[in-house]
Amino acid sequence: MEPGVKRKGPLGLAKQLDVLVKPQPVEYSQVLSQSSLFTSLFKSQIVTTFVRWDAFYFVHIAEEGYIYEQEYAFFPMLPFLMKGISATDHKSILVLSGIIISNVSFALATATLYHLSYSIFKKERFALISALCFCFTPSCMFMSSMYTESLFALLTFVGMDLYIHRWFWSAAIVWSFSTLTRSNGVVYVGFFIFDLCIKNRSSSAVVYMTQVLKAMALSLVTFLGMASFQMYGYLNYCANTSQPRPWCQARIPLLYSFVQEEYWNCGLFRYYEWKQLPNFLLAAPMVLLSFCGIWSYAAHDLLRFFSVGILKATREEALLPFIYLWGVLLVYCTLAMHIQVITRFFSCMPTVYWFAAHLLAQDTDNSKRKRVASQIVLFYFITYGLVGIVLFSNFFPPA
């Protein structure tokens, strides 16, 4: 059957994909190649432990490409790298490639976060604690398994480091690759808008318009990764078929938005059901930590914070766009996403680790309240991470 024909009936074909997404580790291990040296070294008990939840999709995409409509919820960068490194269709090698990519990316992301933190705060100890907090992130189980979190965190931190040093075009290119890894990379255009259109406003109309045009161009570069992937989906389901899908007729035909709503029930307040209460409880620690971190920063200068830095600030503005990013994504996660994924969704947020480091690195202020807060954060990071490993490997939420 031709690929184009396969794609025409995604709803009917959804059941055929169940074997890839249902918790069947034993059956999956049986299809691993028995002739590979890697397979003999990494038998099913080790390899398939990393293949849980979304990882099944990444393996299938790396092996066969995008066949089913719902697979377009998962972006191509990780499967593309898995395929490129393994140079084979053997599932065992593809899985090992994905694991290697995630763990190498995790190590590189840790080093990049240290450099980013030091570039902003100029405090070596604070940068080191921030990097260590990232190593013990509550979503550590996803950072070492075949997920996009580590790769996306690496691209995010590299882009932010380039942005801090004002290498805007390089940052835009790196973030463009991040939008080929996860969709939320598109929000990084806010850094360019903040810096060129708000922070460094010029009294000259000509100069200001030049800055606005530059911000628009940088934003287009950042959007390029996701836009190309959406165009690929549009060509498959709308342009090169006699039976286009319903979303093709939308004013802005975005396959990703349709897939998230149709197959994953994502959307404003869609997750607000009583049966989802346990998932809200799982997400509560990260939601509370984020709210406290944002408020802790904003409370030092509320006028500056709520005026988007336009009014005179009493502190450095370097952190302001990072805090705004944190706040925007916090609102989005709590209102329109599967709330339990916020822990791994925020694994790429340096502000999470900066706030944790702020609480843990108390050089002069030894108040009881801050000591208790730092102990709670440390307990949350370690305990949630350890419990999460057990839950993840046994197909339990959060995922």
UniProtKB/TrEMBL annotation:
<dbReference type="GO" id="GO:0000009">
    <property type="term" value="F:alpha-1,6-mannosyltransferase activity"/>
</dbReference>
<comment type="function">
    <text>Mannosyltransferase involved in glycosylphosphatidylinositol-anchor biosynthesis.</text>
</comment>
<dbReference type="Pfam" id="PF04188">
    <property type="entry name" value="Mannosyl_trans2"/>
</dbReference>
<dbReference type="GO" id="GO:0004376">
    <property type="term" value="F:GPI mannosyltransferase activity"/>
</dbReference>
<dbReference type="GO" id="GO:0006506">
    <property type="term" value="P:GPI anchor biosynthetic process"/>
</dbReference>
<comment type="pathway">
    <text>Glycolipid biosynthesis; glycosylphosphatidylinositol-anchor biosynthesis.</text>
</comment>
<feature type="transmembrane region" description="Helical">
    <location>
        <begin position="318"/>
        <end position="337"/>
    </location>
</feature>
<feature type="transmembrane region" description="Helical">
    <location>
        <begin position="280"/>
        <end position="298"/>
    </location>
</feature>
<protein>
    <recommendedName>
        <fullName>GPI mannosyltransferase 2</fullName>
        <ecNumber>2.4.1.-</ecNumber>
    </recommendedName>
</protein>
<dbReference type="GO" id="GO:0005789">
    <property type="term" value="C:endoplasmic reticulum membrane"/>
</dbReference>
<comment type="similarity">
    <text>Belongs to the PIGV family.</text>
</comment>
<feature type="transmembrane region" description="Helical">
    <location>
        <begin position="126"/>
        <end position="147"/>
    </location>
</feature>
<dbReference type="InterPro" id="IPR007315">
    <property type="entry name" value="PIG-V/Gpi18"/>
</dbReference>
<keyword id="KW-0808">Transferase</keyword>
<feature type="transmembrane region" description="Helical">
    <location>
        <begin position="167"/>
        <end position="194"/>
    </location>
</feature>
<keyword id="KW-1133">Transmembrane helix</keyword>
<feature type="transmembrane region" description="Helical">
    <location>
        <begin position="93"/>
        <end position="114"/>
    </location>
</feature>
<keyword id="KW-0328">Glycosyltransferase</keyword>
<keyword id="KW-0337">GPI-anchor biosynthesis</keyword>
<keyword id="KW-0256">Endoplasmic reticulum</keyword>
<keyword id="KW-0812">Transmembrane</keyword>
<dbReference type="GO" id="GO:0031501">
    <property type="term" value="C:mannosyltransferase complex"/>
</dbReference>
<feature type="transmembrane region" description="Helical">
    <location>
        <begin position="373"/>
        <end position="396"/>
    </location>
</feature>
<feature type="transmembrane region" description="Helical">
    <location>
        <begin position="215"/>
        <end position="235"/>
    </location>
</feature>
<keyword id="KW-0472">Membrane</keyword>
